[in-house]
Specification:
By secondary structure, this protein is of the alpha+beta class. The chain has one domain: Rossmann fold (3-Layer(aba) Sandwich). The protein is 13% helix and 32% strand. The longest helix has 9 residues, at 94-102. The radius of gyration is 16 Å and the shape is globular.
Length: 120
């Protein structure tokens, strides 16, 4: 079996991550919202140029790992490293600065600042 990443290279399944440095590394990720457990022990590594799809029925927690990796939300337990930076040890403003420098995110619903007008 082979896998093809978005850079167009093909590698044998299981070897792709071994030949590339992981850009995203998640280990033991857990997220709880009150009594609800959205994630329990998720671990994965995504290499440069790889594309990953997380699928499931609406509301099952498929977007939760994205919020952990992009930085708007923090895990209840576990570690998230992106480009070698541990998002869990950042101070309150750290994730916002990290997103400004390293990531981008398009929200499903508008998350705009209500006090700002479109004609600024």
């Amino acid at each position: 079996m082979t896998t093809e990443d978005i850079s167009g290279t093909t590698a044998k399944a299981g070897q792709a991550a071994g030949h590339r440095q992981g850009v995203v590394r998640v280990s033991g990720l857990r997220k709880e919202y009150g009594d609800t457990v959205a994630l329990a022990g998720v671990s994965l590594e995504i290499g440069a140029g790889e594309a990953v799809a997380v699928m499931g029925p609406s509301g099952c927690g498929e977007s939760t790992p994205l919020y952990m990796v992009a930085g708007p939300d923090r895990p209840s337990a576990g570690q998230v490293r992106v480009h070698g930076e541990d998002l869990g040890v950042m101070n309150e403003t750290g994730p916002a600065l990290f997103r400004r420098r390293r990531t981008g995110m398009i929200f499903q619903f508008f998350n705009l600042i209500g006090d700002l007008s479109p004609s600024a």
